[in-house]
Amino acid sequence: EADIYQTPRYLVIGTGKKITLECSQTMGHDKMYWYQQDPGMELHLIHYSYGVNSTEKGDLSSESTVSRIRTEHFPLTLESARPSHTSQYLCASSEFENSGRNEQFFGPGTRLTVL
Amino acid sequence: AQTVTQSQPEMSVQEAETVTLSCTYDTSESDYYLFWYKQPPSRQMILVIRQEAYKQQNATENRFSVNFQKAAKSFSLKISDSQLGDAAMYFCAYTGSSNTGKLIFGQGTTLQVKP
Q1: For residue B85, what are the CA distances in angstroms to A90, A107, B5, B89?
Q2: Which residues of chain B are within 8 Å of residue A102 when distances are taken between CB atoms?
Q3: Which of A44, A58, A110, B56 is the most buried if burial means most Cβ atoms within 10 Å?
Q4: Judging by DSSP bridges, how do beta strands B46-52 and A54-57 pair with one another?
Q5: Are A104 and B108 inside 8 Å of each other by CB?
Q6: Phi, psi of B86 (to 5 degrees)
Q7: Quick check: A70 contacting B, CB < 8 Å?
Q8: A97 touches B at CB < 8 Å
Q9: What is the pLDDT along chain B (115 residues), one digit of tens a residue?
């Protein structure tokens, strides 16, 4: 079944640790996105990719980095986690199309808590 | 810069009744798309409905319809015959020709459905 997956779903980690949030999709979508969402608040785009070896920073500044080595995989890495990184991280994907009309499909999210 | 505003943090509706969620946006672009996404508690965000700005006809999807007022830059969502499963956070989102698929989200409206 075509879907978008995120692991882990929940992560509690100490300050200074390096973490990688995984995102994979089986729909063959070229476009992928990472959003940051504080509880009960709006989503802010932090990274996006339009294909393999393409990554761009989003509208919200983030200390995280991303990579896109394979079409289906778009991991997000924090080299040194801090309490200010505590949030929910949502991954999404969509088919490539210039106008932007295409629906974005969202993963279940990773809820990150940094102590 | 484009902005999206949802002025109703919370709304409630009786089961089987109709409710309207408000959204306003600001843009100088003439070609853009507007979306309503639904985020149920602890579940994946899904697309509810989409409106192309060049279309005068309001979009409808079963019990969901929009009132798109381009001149007023207003894009409200009407849910008819509300069901318990409609309880969720609803986000209005915008993308334009300059965004190439990147979504700008409103603050969200939490909808409670009372049995």
Answers
A1: 22, 19, 25, 12
A2: 101
A3: A110
A4: unpaired
A5: no
A6: -80, -10
A7: no
A8: yes
A9: 889 999 999 999 999 999 999 999 999 988 899 999 999 988 899 999 999 999 889 999 999 999 999 999 999 999 999 999 999 999 999 998 776 678 999 999 999 999 9
